[in-house]
Amino acid sequence: xxxxxxxxxxxxxxxxxxxxxxxxxxxxxxxxxxxxxxxxxxxxxxxx
Length: 48
Hints:
48 residues, mainly alpha, 2 helices
């Protein structure tokens, strides 16, 4: 399960980067970044 969370976090960060530099989608792009950071922190806290 932690590998899945890490994969989702990486995908969200990539989507955020593309959206940040290519489009101006407003707050949705930043929400994706926050979700990705939470997923990474959740993985780190679980200690895997």
